[in-house]
Every structure is written in C-alpha cells, then in structure tokens.
C-alpha cells in the first residue's frame, strides 16, 4: 500500500508514458505525410481530447484520490475500474487498427499526435497536482 497522494504521481507516470508512446507513433507516421491539413487536424484532436475529455478525467481522479478516507491505498487505485476498462479498450483498439492496417498513415499521424499530446500534458497535470499537494501546500 502507498500514501494516497502518491497515487497522483502514479497517475501522472502512467498517463505520461502512454501519452509519449501514442505521440511517438503519431510523429513517426507524419514522416512523408506532413501537411497543413494534417497539422490542423492534430490540433483539433488535441483540443477535443485535452479540454473536453482529459481535463474532466484529471479533475475526477484527483478529487476521488484526495477524498479517500484512508491515507494508505493500493497502488492501482490511481484509476477506478471504469478507467482501467477504457484504457484497455483504447489500447486494444489502437493495436488492432495499426496491426491490421485499418487506418491510413495520415490518419494515424494526425489522430495519434493530437491524442498523444493531450494525454501527455494531462499526465504532466497530475505531476503538477502531486507537487502542489505534497510540497507547495505544505510550505
């Protein structure tokens, strides 16, 4: 078991690693496919996921973690069961799409780049909250 505040760090770590990996795949797919249209689509995907989905999820998970009554929690409690299911679905779907060539390289480029960057920054937000809760608020 770990201090519940460490769950914020673990969430940041998992989200950042996932975001980096997705962003890396997207950037690799941009090679030979770069265009203003794809960059614009990446920005749209980024804005959609960052502000309409991930910001809400970061707030929801932060609130849930902070409100745990016991200060010690199992390390996997940085997510709830619904979030683990969503993560497993997204990873499985992404792998299936890429392995079976169900999407073009240009689609992978703009979608994965936008999604990955939004996910990475959301991971960084968890790190920021972790630092704020553990160090800044304790000054």
Automatic annotation (TrEMBL):
Annotated transmembrane regions: 34-53, 74-97, 109-131
Lineage, broadest ranks: Bacteria, Bacillati, Bacillota, Clostridia, Eubacteriales
Protein name per its UniProtKB record: Transmembrane protein
Keyword Membrane tagged: yes
Keywords, sorted A to Z: Membrane, Transmembrane, Transmembrane helix
Domain of life of the source: Bacteria
